[in-house]
Each structure stands twice: as C-alpha cells, then as structure tokens.
Design a protein that fits this description.
Distance between the termini of chain B: 70 Å
Shape of chain B: globular
CATH architecture of the largest domain in chain B: Up-down Bundle
CATH topology of the largest domain in chain B: Four Helix Bundle (Hemerythrin (Met), subunit A)
Number of helices of chain A: 11
Number of strands of chain A: 0
Number of domains of chain B: 2
Largest sheet of chain B: none
Number of domains of chain A: 2
Helix content of chain B: over 70%
Order of helices and strands of chain B: HHHHHH
Largest sheet of chain A: none
Largest interface: A-B, 30 and 25 residues
Number of helices of chain B: 6
CATH superfamily of the largest domain in chain B: NADH-ubiquinone/plastoquinone oxidoreductase chain 6, subunit NuoJ
Oligomer: heterodimer
Number of strands of chain B: 0
Structural class of chain A: mainly alpha
Shape of chain A: globular
Radius of gyration of chain A: 20 Å
Chain lengths: 327, 174
Amino acid sequence: MNELIRVVIYFVGIAAFLGLNLAYLGWVERKGAGHIQRRTGPKEVGPFGLLQPLADGLKLMSKQLVIPDSADKWLYMSAPVLAMVPAVLMFVAIPWGEEIVPREFNFGLLMIFAFASVAGLSVLMAGWGSGNKYSLIAGTRAVSQSVAYEIPMLITAITIVMITGSMDLNEIVRQQGDYFWKWNIFRFDKSILMPLSFLVFFICSMAETNRAPFDLGEAESELVAGYMTEYGGMGFGLFMMAEYANIVIGCSLTTILFLGGWQSPIGIFPGPHWFLLKMYFLIWCFVWIRWTYPRTTLWGLLNLSWKYLIPFSLVNLLVTALFIKVF
Amino acid sequence: MNPSLFSPEGLAGVIFLILIGVTLIGAVIATCTQRLIRSVVGLAICFLGVAGLYYFLNSPFVALMELLIYVGAVCVTIAFAIMLAEPDENKLLRKKPGMSGGLSLVCGGAIAYGLAYAGVNTTWVSAGAKVNDGSVKAIGVELLTTFSMVFELVSVVLLIAILGALVLARAGRN
C-alpha cells in the first residue's frame, strides 16, 4: 500500500511540476525576449503578465480543431500525442534530490535517450501527415538535424558513463562531490577535456530540442511554422508543451551529468533546491541564446555536427579511455 | 490454476496479452495498409509492443535498446527515406498480379513453421529463473567473451553497410 501511495504522490507531483513549468516557461521566454529586444513583453493580463499563460491555455483549448483536407487524418491526430507522451515519461528517471527519485532505475540515462529518440518519429508524422509542403520540408530538416546531433550527445554521455561506471542517474550525481570543483565539469583527473564535453553536450541538447539558433525545423521566416504549420488549438499547444518539456529534460540531464545534480557547490545543504537553481539557470541560458543569435543555415548546422562535434566527441572518448587506463 | 483477474498473476497476464495485442496490431497495420508511411508507423507500434514484452520479461536493457535503435533510428530512417524518395503521397501500394500471392504464402508458411519448430523444440529457461542479473556489466562481459565472434561479425556487417552507402552516394556525384 505504501508503494501505491508513493506512486500516486510522484504521479501528481510530476504532473503539477510539468503543468507549472510548461505554462510559465512560455511566460519566461516571452519576458526574456521582450527585455532582450528592449520591449516589455506580456504585461496586460495580471501583474507582470503573470496570468498570460492561463489566458493562452484557455484560448488554445477553446479553439476548434480543424483537420486540413489534404491531411492524413490518423497521422495528423496522433503526432502531437506522440510528441508529448515520451516527453512526460522521461521525468520518471530524474533524481530531484538524494531521496526524491520517482523511479530509481539502473538504466535511467539510457531510458531518457530511448524516449527522446521516439520524438523524431512524431515530427516526421506531423510533417508528412499535414499534407503541406512546408511541413514536409520542416519534418525532413528537423529529423536530419536530430539524427546528426544525437550521435555526439550519446558519445559524450558514454564518456560520463565510462568515468562513473554507472547509468543510474542518482549514482552519477552521488559520485560528484559536495564542492563545485568535484563536479564532472571540473574533474580534470578523469579527462582534461571535461569542460569542452560539457559544452558539446549543451550545444547538442539545444539542437535536439529544436531551439534557435538551431530551429531549422520551424524557421518561421521561410517555412511559416515548420511542422506545426497546419496545427491549431491544442494540437499546436501540445507541440509547444512538448518542446518546453524537452528543454526541462535537457537542462536536467546536463545538470545531472556535469553540474552535480542536487549536490551543493559550497558544501552546505545539498538538496533539490540546488538542482532547480542549476536547471533554471541553464534554461535561462537557452532563452538568452535563442534571442541573441540569428538562425544558422541547414548546411552550417549539419556541418557543425558531422565535421566538428562528432570527431571531437570521438577524440574525447579516446582521451577519457586513456586517462582511465593510465591513472 | 485459474488466478483471479486482480491477483498479481492475473494482472501480469492481462499486461502480457495487451503487449501481444499491440505487437500484432502494429504488424497487421504494417502489412495491410496501402500507404507506405502508415506501414512505417505500424512497424513502430509493433516495435513498441516488442519492447514492452522485453520489459515484461525482465530485460529492461534490451527493451530500451529496442526503443532507441528500432523505433528511434530504424523507423525514423525508413520514414526519412520514403520522404526523400517518394514525394507523391497519393501513390498507393497495389497488389502485384500473378504468382506473388502463392509465393508469399509459401515463404510465410516456411518462416512460421521454422519459428514454431524452434519454439517447440528449444528447452526454455523457466519463467522464474534468470540467465544472469541483466545488468549492463553482465551483458558487456557476455558480449566480449562468449558472444565476441557474433558481436564482431555484426559490426563487420554494419561497416560493410556504411561503405556500401558511401559508394552509392559517391557514384551519383559528378
């Protein structure tokens, strides 16, 4: 019975955390964009525009669902669901604190990558199912991008697994110490390239979540809204929420693998508050980068991965193996 | 031996049947639909069911690999290839005339007979017993000792596939 109560509490907790974050990250993004572009951002609904996400949600939910004539109905309807479900499932493996883990799972890292790879299929289904040329182009673009960036991301994660000898996310956090120089990003005794592999992982997670400057899949200046062009109402809402959920997961994973998860940087009071602080800082960096840099071209994007990040991550793998073998 | 529906054994049986159902429905969609892209989605559903079966049989590593490789890589690659090669979405798959029906019946029957024969004549590990603890370490040790030959041969096949793809891509370029 205790187990059942635990499951229910985590279920409700994850749902509440997700709902709050997916709604208010949109607000954070619009406010951040506003201030970076010397505007104010949303300010009319509620104090500081804080009720804006609720108004947006009501608007999206009350809209009529229109299925275009040329669309493949089944693919069109199931694509947003398939985008959202794996994004939510991934939260099961995240260790928020030393004791706060929904599912202590010894393949946690692998599980997150497995579910993340399913998202590519939903983008393809949306792109094809909409029956629209812009959607189709965007679908192929987004998938060629996510395939390209999955490889360096996985190889960088493998170096971390080699260092820690575990795929259990909580164990990876536990092995990083209580002070910030014991975090994986600064563990020069394991590999001298650690800060660089942090950078590679961060860039890859930005590209995997289709964020600017890598948002070729929804480049609004050339492709209307990419694979989301034909979606209105909550179909569009689900895609947006899946994107924010993926951002939260990407930042959580970077925090866990490189920034010590729930460990404290100064040796006092380790706990979920440090985890959330680090994660939200990374999310803020995502917003910051998105509104600071212009979009790259498709060729620049693919070249960055295939010609620089993949060779570098392979070299990184070799160097890490060498360090583990020698020291 | 008739456990009630809400006992652990009964629920496990229901989950097992659901997973089998998902696998079969996916396979039927993959073979019977007229649009190529839908059969890829059917294939993905089938793989999801198979991954669930692996998880049910206490092999989470294989289940996650099934998701990562088959759903995340193979299905996406097939769908990608269809999009690049076949932009005409109204082109439906048609039945081939002649003896292809009989031929496919013979092939399918042979495969079904072979699988059934192997299934009946293998001495299976009983449900409770585990081969090893299913950890990454055990799998890694097995792959690099007992099954190292198979492992190397599979990687050679993959290498040849990559080289073949490169040759084909180069041949089209002037």
